[in-house]
Amino acid sequence: MRASVAHDDELDVLLRSADPSRSFTTDHRRLTAAVASAGSATRVPRRVRSRVWVALAVAAALGLGATAPAVADHILVLSRTGQFGTAGTEGDSSEWLTSEGSDFAEVVDATYPEWLPLPPAVDANAFRRETVELLSASSGYEQVSGVEVSFEHQARCAWVYEWLAADTVADTQRATAAAAMLQESAHWPATVASDGGGFVDHLLDVANAAATGDRTVVEYQEQSECGAIPSARVE
Amino acid sequence: MRRNSLGPGRVSTAESAPALTVAVDRVAFGIRLEPLMEPLLKYFARRVLPRDDSYDCLSETLTVLWTKRRAAPADDTELRAWSFGIAKNVLRNHERAARRRTRLAEKTRESTENATAVNDERASRAVTALDSLTPRDRELVTLIVWDGLGVAEAGAVLGLSAPTARTRYSRARAVLRRALDLPVSQEG
């Protein structure tokens, strides 16, 4: 029996040597972000999905359990929690918002980046309104930075649609402009700040594909990441 | 416009009770799931390419877990098997999506595969041996040896009864020993 155990040990050692996760190092920042992004109700970037329900461990880290009874004693719940940064994403000092706040939609709207460029055919007011509605519709916790990322993402999708529309009608000048904006969008501030590794590179790949006329890649981006904001869709 | 239970404007303490219940519920469920975060992440890291997608798969899994939390087993061991079962379904969806991916994904996958190719001779032999098993037996073995699940737990993930899982696991190990030129033990 002892020999059997030894053989079993040897078998297990061999099998474990083939474990693919041996070469995988957990990125705890991304792990936290993945936990925080769970429950996303909207089609936003897979790596930086921003609509957040309670972030499991993050919520615990925020001390929600301790503050919950206090919430019950108050008649008004505000979106701004007064909690900043490190509970969720290291290096991100932005404030945590709670969708339980009665002013959540207003706070989200106030976060809208006024500088965000949109294609000429997109109704900027409708785009802003629909995006705010979308972001306000989920429940949970969210950092301000996550809201900013979502706005940037939806605007980027508008440029994806713009490029696809231009390519469809072989409007080279318009497609070139859209590709240039996709390239620029990879460097938008919230996008860059939230990149846990590889996301900006991915966006640059898409932008390069657009610049070289590779419709398959741009279509894949549209199908996998866009579609939540009707007014962003340029025909 | 708002979907949270507090609704717009000022709310009374009584009206805030459902939101409070949900919040406490979430924290409690989160605390139960917290020990599973990294094991589930590694479950995906073992099975998806590019491995970066593991984080997305984990996020998807947590979303499903939250949605189905009312059906979550009270026992923590059963919760783990249940969670891995959901992860298995997320993995299948991911694989289906991966098959539809475009050249962009292919390019990423190729570079990842090159970076993580098995170059250890011993590991390579083990991979070959594992590949000699049926897909379900291979998954049973890897859930146990790589993911650290118990035999009955792994069986539950794959929809096998505990006795069936034990029998299949024992047979699979015998196959692996033969494939790896290890002496076949008396068990099974």
Structural class by secondary-structure content of chain B: mainly alpha
Order of helices and strands of chain B: HHHHHHHHH
Number of domains of chain A: 1
Q: Uncertain regions of chain B: pLDDT < 50 for 5+ in a row? A: 1-19, 107-117
**DSSP helix fraction of chain A:** 55-70%
Which descriptor suits the 3D outline of chain B?
globular
Name of the CATH class of the largest domain in chain B: Mainly Alpha
Structural class of chain A: mainly alpha
Mean pLDDT of chain B: 75
H/E element string of chain A? Answer: HHHHEEHHEHHHHH
**Spatial separation of the terminal alpha carbons of chain B:** 61 Å
Spatial strand arrangement across the major sheet of chain A: 1-2-3
Written description of the protein model:
Chain A has eleven helices and three strands. By secondary structure, chain A is mostly helical. Chain A starts with a helix and ends in a 10-residue tail after the last helix. By secondary structure, chain B is mainly α. Chain B has two domains: 102 residues, Rna Polymerase Sigma Factor, Chain: A (Orthogonal Bundle); 64 residues, Winged helix-like DNA-binding domain superfamily/Winged helix DNA-binding domain (Arc Repressor Mutant, subunit A, Orthogonal Bundle), CATH 1.10.10. Chain B is globular, with a radius of gyration of 21 Å. The N terminus of chain B is likely disordered. The chains are: A mainly alpha (235), B mainly alpha (188).
